Predict the 3D structure of the following.
Amino acid sequence: MKAELLTIGDELLIGQVSNTNSVWMAQQLNAIGVWVNQITTVSDEKQSIIKAMDEALQRADIVIITGGLGPTKDDVTKLALCHYFKVGLKKEEAVIQFIKTNFLKRGISFLPVHESQALILENSELLFNNNGTAPGMWINHQGKIVVCLPGVPFEMKGIMRNEVLPRLTSQFNLPFILHKTLVVLGMPESDVADKIADVEDNLPEHIKLAYLPNFGMVRVRLSGIGVDESILKQEIEQYFLDIQSMLPSSNIAATDDLKLEEIVGLLLTSKKQSLAIAESCSGGYISHLITSVPGSSDYFVGSLIAYSYQIKMEILGVNQQTLLEYGAVSEACVKEMVMGIKNKFGSDFAISTTGIAGPGGATPDKPVGTVWIAVAGPQGLKTRKIIGNGERMNVIERTALVALDMLRCMILET
Amino acid sequence: MKAELLTIGDELLIGQVSNTNSVWMAQQLNAIGVWVNQITTVSDEKQSIIKAMDEALQRADIVIITGGLGPTKDDVTKLALCHYFKVGLKKEEAVIQFIKTNFLKRGISFLPVHESQALILENSELLFNNNGTAPGMWINHQGKIVVCLPGVPFEMKGIMRNEVLPRLTSQFNLPFILHKTLVVLGMPESDVADKIADVEDNLPEHIKLAYLPNFGMVRVRLSGIGVDESILKQEIEQYFLDIQSMLPSSNIAATDDLKLEEIVGLLLTSKKQSLAIAESCSGGYISHLITSVPGSSDYFVGSLIAYSYQIKMEILGVNQQTLLEYGAVSEACVKEMVMGIKNKFGSDFAISTTGIAGPGGATPDKPVGTVWIAVAGPQGLKTRKIIGNGERMNVIERTALVALDMLRCMILET
């Protein structure tokens, strides 16, 4: 059962927004055994939509379209589909009532333009939208399925959860798709591939191996498809164990597709240790990563984001002399920051960062991207200086990655 | 001059990663006058790549391919292209030397597999990769251009900046593409459309209007294409002013495609006012948004992320009695938090948040998603309770959006 996603909208083609819808949809579809074959983004233009639609239906059994269902003139998806299927529109009274009731509650007036929101394709079944005015549509076309959803993420997600996924699982006898990912740190992709070549060369047709490298981290993923879930699971587990046994255990950061903040969270939880953070240049990003993990309140005490000298001195207890002599971006300062937060917040471990995220703030001996990072634990502290390059967000992200990995290593050594 | 992006990789099709490469490439191409017509993502399979390649070349003048150039077996892009163009590979000595020198510096051994990285298509010109082992390729094919780049974001960006964009601007006489965006808050998309219908109905063929709604915010975008930059700019400016004059000024949050944190930053800068934040449930995300803006150190003093009761009491001065009587997720607590941070950090404005981001932590009268937000300024404080739904990250994002908009309104009223 092959599916294609067709996302419509110039905002995606000019890089104004990122296509997060297709990431989420692909995850959900994989989870019920539907393989996504292709993702296509086209303009809000009738002809582009019709052509892309036609091509997708030639390749796939299910085509899920998002975007272009709104009440405004740039929303042309329904027109394009009417043209493609040679059908007209029908009005859904239930949708009109829903919109009227909702608007009344929120004090919005019902305009003629909203009436058009209740029109769906004659050859379609209504997929009710609890979160907005644009309904979804389910079309059976010559043995293939076309689903049409609004592009606003939380509206699309609601209809997918309530309508689309249940219909797909009940109407089709779907296979199982399983993925298993090993997170490898501190080894280049080619070294990893070299070490596990024996497994890779002998994989059966229905199991694939992929490498996903980024910033000193390689995710190695096994993906399999099969009709018997337990057999498939067993097969993948075995290959996964084989791969693990061929790599140095110190380089294996996780045996699940975890982010570094999740790995750190699991380590802190299992060791019943707590964490506090003092951030300067990373501006709250490390704290945000840590607290984006459910259950982080069990080990995360709190953070101080200390942009000003005054806060660094008053709350973290950094010496004025240190700031005057070495500046805020210095090993001396990052050390005092990490011990300050650890003592003040009474945590077992602590992280501190101070640096120049840019684009302003550079000095002759401290270019943009210069960052000092410290981690402290029950057995002492470690510091590291990195010189990142690129834009502000790159510097911030790299700082967070290095800091979290330093913390990971320190927890493991403790 | 129409371009298409062809991104290759199963990690995109299973939703393991988001396609951030195409967002960045689309922005860069637009900036030099190249319109991106379609973005297609296909699997790491030879046949899928060949088919997508063939279709893209029928529609576009330039096809930029990313991904599948690595040294591992799941990297099949070069094989697919050799097959498509009916050519072999040639070895680039400069690439081998570069890899050897680099590996020597970093203490990595040069393996036979790396030799294959220096192979490029016979019909291509080398696009040197300063940041990795996989070179890019530039192919002239029957009057059309095919560019092939590695998928690792910082490697792709380096080659785009150093090689691809300069070649495109020097070899082609490109038009100008301009976008201008109005950020409208507190008005439904259909109301906005209704009010500006007169402008929209009379736009010339080369200027398009689009609406991008999300979470109580609508971005209205004019996009134009033309050969004379100053005429195009003038035209767009005029329509833009017309649109502005048709909407209530209080609903216009920005006349540029700014994020809310940028709008708040501009307001604080222009009024020479400072900001401090006390976050509980939002866990550093608001601080991260604020500090992601270059120059934020001019107005941002710092934040406290207070997950524990103890930190809320000790540093923010929240009364123990308040926590015992009303709990941390209460109006009483959020008020004390906002005044605590404002006084402690000596800022003009302050934000505080406390709530249940989930999935754990709910009580019978406080479901997951219950969040109290407070903002304080020179003239007092305001609070608001929201009940978000969905996943942890949704609750956090919605909290940040509401908090920043409350702050925006308070700064404007001060």
